[in-house]
TrEMBL record:
This is Pseudouridine-5'-phosphate glycosidase. It catalyses: D-ribose 5-phosphate + uracil = psi-UMP + H2O. The lineage of its organism: Bacteria, Pseudomonadati, Pseudomonadota, Alphaproteobacteria, Hyphomicrobiales. It comes from the Bacteria. Its cofactor is Mn(2+). It is an enzyme of class 4 (lyase). Keywords: Glycosidase, Hydrolase, Lyase, Manganese, Metal-binding. GO terms for molecular function: hydrolase activity, acting on glycosyl bonds. Mn(2+) binds at D143.
């Protein structure tokens, strides 16, 4: 199933390989959220919890990362914990995934790079927190995440709590539409906003069961439509931080980023870190809750496929 020429660079963790061979459900997980999205030791605890949730739902988790130049499809507990402690990991997207492999480096894979690796391994479903998108002020900075282009070309279902609310959600939805990516509210009419259940924008499409999401994916493939799908799944109510309250923290974080001239790949990790500080750790608790919730939905979609 895997591109023959990629095989020498990829290690598939034995339980994942067995599940794929037996056509049992597998859910991919990204690792930039571990290396750049959350502080130690919460990052490692979150990564372990999310794997546990997927297992409890009856699917096999495959956390994807690059370790010393090897593309890892699934990590052992030890490998996952040591990645959580790595301080100099790269943040890998389509542009630098192969660089890390060629140079024997270690890195967390973003949504884009995780989709590429998942597709190589034949994994169709992937859970994350929030995708990257069009940054506020992108008309000047041109900062648009490679996650959006990847969704347009690689056939993987990404379950997220929408785009991170530090982004321009309206422009992110516009780009996704232009690039032909279906964005599906998971039982919700309104697009979620990561830490908050609602953004000011409608979800372009709505489906209310894992079976229907799986069916849409199959129909797209049958029609020869390339690319993936974005499932937008709101954070559970008891963990949400209302959008009005978040707006203040986001603005303050953005001002700090500007003042400190943070650019490029460093922007998203900086903003997430700053917001964690401003909310006294509350944003992190919400972030963990929403990833866990996405993992549950992703496992159910994987089972339905
Ligand atoms: N979801 C989270 N935390 C994160 C990310 C997602 O809850 O840190 C990561 C993802 O890996 C996503 C990346 O692909 O942030 C987007 O980075 P950028 O905006 O630089 O493309
Ligand atoms: Mn960017």
């Amino acid at each position: 199933m895997m591109l023959e020429s990629a095989r020498p660079f990829v290690d598939i963790h034995p339980p994942v390989a067995e599940a794929l061979a037996a056509k049992r459900p597998v859910v991919a997980l990204e690792s930039t959220i571990i290396t750049h999205g959350m502080p130690y030791p919460d990052n490692g605890a979150m990564a372990a919890d999310v794997e546990k949730i997927i297992t409890e739902e009856g699917a096999v988790p495959a956390t994807i990362a690059v370790v010393n130049g090897r593309i890892k499809i699934g990590l052992s507990d030890g490998e996952r914990e040591s990645l959580a402690m790595t301080v100099d990991a790269m943040k890998l997207s389509r542009a630098d995934l192969a660089f890390a492999v060629a140079e024997g480096r270690t890195g967390g894979t973003t949504v884009a790079a995780t989709m590429i690796c998942a597709a190589l391994a034949g994994i169709k479903v992937f859970a994350t927190g929030g995708i990257g998108g069009v940054h506020k002020g992108a008309e000047k900075s041109f900062d648009i995440s490679a996650d959006l282009d990847e969704l347009a070309r690689t056939p993987v279902i990404v379950v997220s709590a929408g785009a991170k609310a530090i982004l321009d959600i309206e422009k992110t939805l516009e780009v996704l539409e232009t690039r032909g990516v279906p964005v599906i509210g998971n039982g919700c009419e309104v697009m979620p906003a990561f830490w908050s259940r609602q953004s000011p924008f409608r979800a372009p499409l709505m489906l209310d069961s894992p079976e229907k999401i799986a069916e849409l994916f199959n129909v797209r493939r049958a029609l020869g439509l390339e690319g993936g799908m974005l499932v937008a799944n709101p954070v559970p109510e008891d963990h949400e931080i209302p959008a009005a309250e978040m707006a203040g923290y986001i603005e303050a974080a953005q001002k700090a980023a500007e003042a400190q001239k943070i650019v490029g790949k460093a922007v998203t990790p900086f903003l997430l870190g700053k917001i964690l500080e401003l909310t006294g750790g509350r944003s992190l608790k919400t972030n963990i809750a929403l990833v866990e919730n996405n993992a549950r939905v992703a496992a159910r979609v994987a089972k339905a496929l």
